[in-house]
Design brief:
This protein is mainly alpha-helical. It has helices at 10-21, 24-28, 30-36, 40-68, 72-79, 86-119, 121-124, 128-136, 141-159, 161-188, 193-201, 210-223, 230-235, 244-271, 282-299, 301-337, 342-362, 377-404, 407-414, 425-449. The N and C termini lie far apart (47 Å). The structure holds 4-fluoro-L-phenylalanine. Residues 20-21, 23-26, 96, 99, 222-223, 225, 228, 230, 322, 325-326 line the site of 4-fluoro-L-phenylalanine (PFF).
């Protein structure tokens, strides 16, 4: 078995963890939530959720990973040998595997749209809605693109922590930030951009209902990659000098900044095309936005071309860095519990996950009539992972760190054995013991009743 390596630098730590957090959710969900739910008022509530829920849960995952220097399943098994808490580790790795299986398929769509943009085929398309549904329901094209995306993820993971994850994050995250800045400039240069921005940012507290607050919390959770074993796994590669609180705050800030900037890209652009409604999810990025690029292409061809190519590149990079963390969460487990090499372990994860991915992809086409509890395979995986297991895991993580772990161990980890001050330690413990489990419980019930 290979020896365990840590990340080699502070920047590598922050960029790798931020890479996990920044993903499709930042681009295709957050901006629409803001626009439809009270603009700046929603952003304010979201920020509170990130600070009061996201950061404490992230710190908790970090300390479990860093203390044990082990994959998520072994981490819980070591901290609570022989007890039921170990199930939390299993849930983390399982949910990462499940999410990766459909994340690669959607990321494959992104890759397809990037290729279409580069070749100019997207600009020539007439009916984007029909084009999108005929692509995703095709029996094998989406699978081919999903496999290419999985191969890209695989190459990074097979290279290991320092020469794979850290090195690629250090290149891809700054590139992603540069692309975002260029895209914001493209979007602002479109006619009518000002109204889009105005609509996005105008605070409207009358729209803030309990449902909106709960939705902000759910979004914060998914966007920060909490409770999937990913951050715990990455933290197992943190060295003794890594400051957990500061890293959690930095990662959350980067993630939130990217989400807000995505709004600055999407809203002005969409508003520049009269009559286009701001949708969310796949409808936004694969139907609405191609319409916008199409219009821009006809009035200003260069702008339309650059805009669409960079936009899908942004999505692809964001998806890739998130997929890397999901993959590593599972690979670390396979690697550390068997006697096979990292290359073999990552190949095993890539292939088995891709097999599930094929089922997810087919559920948009030939298998769309196959339903379990009224949900297609894709919908079932998404529901189980991001609505049920993720939230339940969030509760368990807080209870585990708040009630089960030794208080001194928690203090030592978050303060690097007393060398880094953490004045809010008691407040942090109060939040994870009492407040956050209750709040997540409410979100959970709300999601189930929706
Ligand atoms: N945070 C990613 C996003 O916003 O798209 C998605 C994600 C990645 C969720 C990794 C969970 C995870 F473990």
């Amino acid at each position: 078995m290979e020896t365990r390596k840590n990340f080699g630098s502070r920047l590598g730590v922050v960029l790798a963890a931020a890479g996990s957090a920044v993903g499709l959710g930042n681009v295709w969900r957050f901006p629409t939530e803001v626009g439809n739910n009270g603009g700046a008022a929603f952003i304010l509530i979201y920020l509170l959720c990130v600070l009061l829920i996201g950061v404490p849960v992230m710190i908790s995952e970090f300390l479990i990973g860093r203390h044990t220097h082990a994959n998520t399943i072994s981490a819980y098994a070591r901290l609570a040998p022989g007890s039921w808490w170990r199930i939390e580790g299993v849930a983390g790795v399982f949910v990462a595997f499940l999410i990766l299986s459909y994340y690669v398929i959607i990321s494959g769509w992104t890759l397809y749209y990037l290729v279409q943009s580069c070749t100019g085929a997207l600009a020539a398309e007439q009916d984007f809605k029909a084009g999108f549904s005929s692509f995703v329901s095709h029996p094998w094209w989406p699978v081919v693109y999903g496999c290419i995306f999985m191969a890209m993820t695989h190459v990074v993971i097979a290279r290991g922590v320092q020469s794979g994850i850290e090195r690629f994050s250090k290149v891809m995250m700054p590139l992603l930030l540069v692309i975002i800045v260029v895209l914001v400039a493209c979007s602002f240069s479109m006619p009518g951009a000002r109204e889009g921005l105005h609509f996005l940012l105008k605070p409207d507290f009358s729209k803030v209902s309990t449902r909106v607050m709960l939705s902000a919390m759910g979004q914060a959770f998914f966007s920060l990659s909490l409770a999937m074993g990913c951050l715990c796994t990455y933290a197992s590669y943190f060295g003794p000098e890594t400051r957990l609180v500061r890293t959690a705050v930095n990662v959350s800030l980067i993630d939130t900044m990217v989400a807000i900037l995505s709004g600055f890209i999407i809203f002005p652009a969409v508003f520049s095309v009269a009559g286009v409604q701001v949708d969310e999810g796949p409808g936004l990025v694969f139907i609405t936005l191609p319409n916008v690029f199409h219009m821009a292409f006809h009035s200003l061809p260069l702008l339309g071309y650059v805009f669409s190519v960079l936009f899908y590149l942004l999505l692809l990079l964001a998806a890739l860095t998130s997929a890397m963390s999901l993959h590593e969460s599972v690979t670390a487990y396979v690697l550390e519990t068997t006697h096979i090499s990292r290359r073999q372990a990552s190949a095993l994860v890539s292939v088995s996950c891709m097999l599930l991915g094929v089922a997810c992809s087919l559920s948009f086409g030939p298998w769309s009539d196959f339903k379990v509890f009224g949900l297609t395979i894709f919908e079932l995986f998404d529901f189980a992972a991001s609505k049920v297991i993720m939230l339940l895991s969030g509760i368990v993580i807080c209870l585990f760190v708040g009630w089960r772990l030794d208080r001194q161990l928690v203090y030592d980890e978050v303060t690097n054995y007393g060398t880094v001050p953490f004045r809010l330690f008691r407040f942090y413990v109060f939040l994870i013991r009492y407040v956050i489990p209750v709040i997540i419980g409410v979100i959970f019930v709300n999601e189930l009743l929706r």
